[in-house]
Amino acid sequence: MDVGYHSYETESTHTAGKVITCKAAVAWGPGQPLVIEDVQVAPPQKMEVRVKVLFTSICHTDLSSWKGESQRLTLVAFVLKNEAQRAYPRILGHEAAGIVESVGEGVEDMKIGDHVIPFFQGECGTCICCRSRKTNLCQKFGVNPLKSVMVNDGKTRFSTMDGNPIFHFHNTSTFSQYTVLDSACLVKIDTKAPLEKMSLLSCGVSTGVGAAWNVANVQPGSSVAIFGLGAVGLAKIGAITEGGVDYSFECVGNLEVLREAFLSTHTVTPSSYHPASDFPVSSIVVPLYSSKCGMHIQGWVLTVLLGIHQAQCCCLSIQWSYLTDAKS
């Protein structure tokens, strides 16, 4: 989504250190239509960056959060809370590309004019998770759907025109012409990279590619099955086999995506597939939580689960044999 800017030049010499008035898509409640309205964006504080958002895209996580569908188990008393319990109003969005408008005190790795993309899974670089090569689930800037303010002072950088707070989303809030982020939640990119395409790297593409390269560690000759063909699934297909996997399955019953599933495989094509063919699953369309997602793959398998779940899907029943029969 192009938010209305056709020039990549910043006006930071006129705006740095000042409150900026701009347009944003504000969510006033779960499921309520987003309202395009004027908001005020405060200057960045210590270790924060204010970004002029040039392009932003919509991820299914934004949609689920807007509907109030997703749910999180909090660490305090293990209480389940869903999106409807989050603070409103707020500004959604976490996939974007833009230019640094100004930086706060202490920011040394970014400067005015740098091209950047936001990253909702920030990295402080010092916690035990950031220091480990096995995970990047930062203890300070990790994903927390219930987080609604900045880490530095527990306040928001957005407000209505009459001064009431507007809350943050996923460390990013990109459905605004300007946004303020912790510097740990930004990545600088090459200025030659086309910004209109870079927003997808914030989540969909990087999630799929990262799962294939860093988590699953797919090697040449591996057999791979992809369940779910959204942006994440399609990115994974492109990353691991230059456009083809052994098997792919559309998991939510969207018949329009079936052709994508067929075309992404080395095993079957739309013209050759028929129900009686020798295919290693009993159905092309399988529920995401079906046993078929795990049991129709041969042994020594690594299963990687990605994405968010709906509030009504907070618990899964898994047969013991799934964990013991040569799978991980």
From TrEMBL:
Entry's Gene Ontology cellular component terms? cytosol
Protein name in the entry: Alcohol dehydrogenase-like N-terminal domain-containing protein
Q: Which cofactor does it need?
A: Zn(2+)
Biological process (GO) annotations held by this record are: formaldehyde catabolic process
Assembly, in brief, is: Homodimer.
Q: Which GO terms describe its molecular function?
A: S-(hydroxymethyl)glutathione dehydrogenase [NAD(P)+] activity; zinc ion binding
For this UniProt record, the keywords arranged alphabetically read as follows: Metal-binding, NAD, Oxidoreductase, Zinc
Domain Alcohol dehydrogenase-like N-terminal spans what residues?
46-189
Q: Which InterPro entries match?
A: ADH-like_N, ADH_Zn_CS, GroES-like_sf, NAD(P)-bd_dom_sf
Source species of the chain: Gossypium barbadense (Sea Island cotton)
Chloroplast keyword on record? no
